Amino acid sequence: MASSALGVILAVLASLIITANVLVAIALLRLIQKSGSKGLYFVLNLAIADTMVGFTVVGLVVDEFSEPFHPPQIFCILRMAFVTSSSAASILSLILVACDRHLAIRKPFHYFQLVTGLRIGVRLMGLWLVAAIIGFLPVFTPCFQKVSTHGKCSFFGVFHPTYMLTVFCVGFFPALFLFIYLYCDMLKIASVHVQHIQEVEHAVLAGGCPPSHTTSDMKAMRTVAVLIGCFTLSWLPFFIASIVQTVCPECFPYEVIENYLWLLGLCNSLLNPLLYSYWQKDVRLQLSQLTAGVKKRVLLHLGRRFPGRGTKSLPTVSCLRLQD
Fold first, then answer.
1. 224 by DSSP, 3-state: which?
2. Which of 55, 45, 119 is CA-nearest to residue 89?
3. Distance (Å, rounded) from C-alpha 83 to C-alpha 72?
4. How open is the CA angle 245-251-253, to the nearest 5 degrees?
5. Structure confidence by residue, pLDDT tens digits, 72-122
6. Is residue 56 within 8 Å of 80, Cβ to Cβ?
7. 3-class DSSP assignment, residue 188
8. For residues 49 and 310, which has the higher predicted lDDT (pLDDT)?
9. Does residue 198 register a pLDDT over 80?
10. DSSP 144
11. Which pLDDT score is estimated for 318?
């Protein structure tokens, strides 16, 4: 019963993750074609990585509804390797987005010279290479593998504690600190900009209307704070509990980590498209246009299939009758 409930939760979560990220990816592709903004490629890559997270969760849903399910060891290792690599790609994509925004704020006049198509391609290729190395390292390193004692595929059933500690301490926490540092530095720069704008406008306008730039900058700082909080709250409990479980296997039940805390981390892949699209007006506009286009096509299809439904035909009047 508990396994079926977990399967239903995973199925709903996977559907929401895939749907939200696919819609945002389509909106970003349309926006890139219109505006040509190269920085949006990093956000598009984030949506693609989160979509892959959703598809890997679909495989776990199949496992949950296929019990009793006893797959071979290599199958579980490959399954969890895909899950780990896609999650790593999502986290690394957040770091690239943070670096891109930080560069745009730190060096606004040199941004378009520094961010070229070649450099974007190299960074994205490096991101997926690092994510693949992180996820598939146990596949090519037998010492990082562990004989499974559980009926289904799980992190702690196929990955050795040494690998878990290596990923957590060398991969996640430095990335988390870099992520927080970049966004906190952007907050600092934004606050300096707000202070300068207030000083200039108070000097020129002598206490006139409140500056509009201040409102937008404060909104941007609130957005950054929400992003930092969502990322930290989503993944930090899972990684801390996993380290405790790795060091002391009897101190923390692994079922709680994999059934609850890991789901909390997966929710970050659902929050990413919602957060990044909600505060970007252009993405919201593309989504609304996409929705309007789909609605129009559906109505046209229904009108052709059911002619005369919902509309009354107007009487036709000939020109000769009008003349009479």
1. helix
2. 45
3. 17
4. 70
5. 778 888 888 898 899 889 888 888 888 888 888 788 788 888 888 889 999
6. no
7. helix
8. 49
9. no
10. G
11. 46
Spatial distance between the Cα atoms of 110 and 19, rounded to a whole number of angstroms: 36
pTM assigned to the model: 0.81
| pLDDT at residue 250 tops 80 | no
CB 85 within 8 A of CB 134: yes
Is residue 251 a contact partner of residue 245, using CB atoms and an 8 Å limit? yes
Query: In this structure, are residues 228 and 180 in contact, taking their beta carbons and an 8 Å threshold?
Result: yes
Structure-token match 């970007």, residue found: 280
Q: How confident is the model at residue 313 (pLDDT cuts 50, 70, 90)?
A: very low
Q: How far apart are the first and last CA of the chain?
A: 79
pLDDT in tens, 153-196: 777 778 877 787 788 777 778 877 887 788 788 778 777 766 77
Using 50, 70 and 90 to split pLDDT, how confident is the model at 2?
low
How remote is the C-alpha of 211 from its chain's centroid? 33
- The three-state secondary structure class of 181 is helix
Alpha helices for 107-211 (secondary structure H): 111-114, 117-140, 155-158, 161-166, 173-205
Cα separations in angstroms, 216 against 37, 103, 261: 21, 19, 35
* Distance, CA of 296 to CA of 302 (rounded, Å): 10
d(CA 290, CA 22): 12
Contact of 282 with 31, CB cutoff 8 Å = yes
CA–CA separation, 83 vs 138, rounded Å?
13
Q: How far is CA 190 from CA 96, 102, 105, in A?
A: 19, 11, 8
Taking CA atoms, 232 is separated from 108, 179, 185, 192, 284, in Å, by 28, 10, 17, 25, 25
Q: 131 or 4: which carries more pLDDT confidence?
A: 131
Q: What angle do CA 173, 176, 178 make, to 5 degrees?
A: 110
Measured CA to CA, the distance from residue 148 to residue 71 in angstroms comes to 10
